[in-house]
Structures are given as structure tokens and as C-alpha cells.
Design brief:
By secondary structure, this protein is α+β, with helices and mostly antiparallel strands. The protein has 2 helices and 4 strands. α1 (about 5-25) runs antiparallel to α2 (about 60-70).
Length: about 90
């Protein structure tokens, strides 16, 4: 398994800064090594967003970078907040 550490760091910074900007504190983060690469998730207490909403792509580069560099990614919401995760 080979992981592009620079891309992983960039995406982590983008997702974490979006969580701080839009979701508020506290922010939680987890990183795990899986068979197919690295999985990073960032959790905040915000309402989240719909990844299919084209309007979120116009507000900055974060989602576009995640879409371009991650092998998979998603958004999961529950009563306690939102988790954005990606694999690289």
C-alpha cells in the first residue's frame, strides 16, 4: 500500500478547516490504516451538507479537491452532527 502523504495532509486540512468554519467546535478526527489505503474522518456538530448539491462546489476548493484526490468520500449525518470522511 502506498499513500500520497501530501495529498492526505492537504485533504485533511481542507476538511478540518471546513468543519471549523461551518460546523463549529468541538471537532473530532480519526485516521485509520485500511487494506486499500488511509481513511480520515472529521466530525463536527454542524448540520452538514448534501454532497450532491452543486452550490457547495462554488464556495471554495475543498470539495473539488476531495473529489479529485480521494478514492472515495462521503458525508454522514446524525442527531449529534456531521462526519465527512475520505479514503486515499
Amino acid at each position: 500500500m502506498s499513500v500520497d502523504v501530501g495529498a492526505a495532509a492537504l485533504l485533511t486540512a481542507e476538511v478540518a478547516s471546513n468543519a471549523a468554519r461551518h460546523g463549529g467546535e468541538p471537532i473530532g478526527m480519526s485516521v485509520s490504516v485500511e487494506e486499500d489505503g488511509l481513511r480520515v474522518s472529521v466530525r463536527d456538530q454542524g448540520p452538514g451538507f448534501d454532497p450532491a448539491d452543486e452550490n457547495i462546489r462554488g464556495s471554495g476548493m475543498g470539495v473539488r479537491l476531495v473529489e479529485a484526490l480521494a478514492s472515495d468520500w462521503g458525508v454522514e449525518r446524525d442527531d449529534e452532527g456531521t462526519e465527512v470522511w475520505f479514503k486515499i
